[in-house]
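Researcher: We plan to redesign the surface later, but first we want a full-length starting point. Tokens attached.
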């Protein structure tokens, strides 16, 4: 039986470690401050930002959400970020992506003060990751490392294959695994013989956003599979095909109108992996708690505690 890597359990453990650090900051100076910037009405982004601000408030931080109109210009958004950069009570700034097409996303990410960039997406922080220097690190890759370490899955000397080369997950997770002495390969849409490359992996990270792309053909027996994909299936036929007519999944689809699946085929994971993250309940909870950890780290640096 494979080990199911329980992201909710690890999230709860990390939260409990953060609570006393937050209480200490609040007692000594002030609670950590977090500002989330949400542009427009993308429902997924609204949900993410609500969860991030609520989690930070539940932990005792001082957080605020800035909801801005879809029609905002790059210059207007730059002015808002610059103001947050100067505020002494704000330790972490997160600009939720994606931004509307008229906004220059790279300029916005570049404008966030690197010491408040709790997403770890500023080129300064990305550069530190490449150079092996301490800095704020992207949340999902940092969460994946926590998961591997806390389940005592060896990394050094292992073959790691990362499927997906995004700035948010694929590239930084590859760098973090390299830093821990894995032998790392990054695959993408132009990779030839994807299944053959994936089958070499002791640690296989799937971060492409393609429902159940990785099958038994891609998974070496006993491998650890980290599934970062959160794909919403909105057709009954797709649910029936991917979940092999599972009565439970079809009933969930009838009830909610959609069902989630990761980038790996859930049956292939159960049959071949040695350990894997479920979807939902695997990587997802860790992304948010690592954001909280970045805010606390940043507040401790700002308040010199
Ligand atoms: N959109 C989807 N994931 C993320 C994330 O981790 N950070 C930001 N800023 N936007 C996102």
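Model: Full-length starting sequence:
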């Amino acid at each position: 039986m494979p080990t199911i890597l329980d992201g909710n359990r690890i999230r709860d453990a990390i939260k409990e470690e953060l609570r006393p650090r937050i209480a200490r900051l609040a007692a000594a100076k002030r609670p950590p401050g977090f500002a989330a910037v949400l542009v427009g009405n993308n429902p997924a982004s609204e949900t993410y930002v609500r969860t991030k601000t609520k989690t930070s408030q539940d932990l005792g931080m001082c957080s605020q959400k800035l909801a801005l109109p879809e029609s905002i210009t790059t210059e207007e958004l730059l002015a808002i970020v610059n103001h947050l950069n100067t505020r002494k009570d704000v330790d972490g700034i997160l600009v939720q992506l994606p931004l509307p097409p008229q906004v220059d996303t790279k300029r916005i990410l570049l404008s966030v003060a690197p010491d408040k960039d709790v997403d770890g997406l500023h080129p300064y922080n990305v550069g530190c990751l490449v150079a092996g220097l301490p800095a704020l690190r992207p949340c999902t890759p940092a969460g994946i490392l926590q998961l591997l370490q806390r389940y005592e899955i060896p990394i050094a000397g292992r073959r790691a294959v990362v499927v997906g080369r995004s700035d948010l997950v694929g590239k930084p997770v590859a760098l973090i695994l390299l830093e821990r002495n894995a032998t790392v390969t990054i695959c993408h849409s132009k990779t030839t013989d994807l299944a053959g490359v994936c089958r070499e992996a002791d640690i296989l990270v799937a971060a492409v956003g393609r429902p159940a792309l990785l099958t038994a053909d891609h998974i070496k027996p006993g491998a650890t599979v980290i599934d970062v994909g959160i794909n919403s299936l909105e057709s009954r036929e797709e649910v029936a095909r991917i979940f092999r007519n599972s009565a439970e999944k079809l009933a969930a689809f009838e009830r909610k109108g959609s069902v989630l699946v990761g980038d790996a085929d859930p049956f292939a994971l159960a049959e071949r992996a040695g350990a894997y993250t479920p979807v939902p309940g695997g990587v997802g909870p860790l992304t948010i708690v690592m954001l909280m950890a970045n805010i606390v780290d940043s507040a401790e640096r700002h308040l010199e505690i």
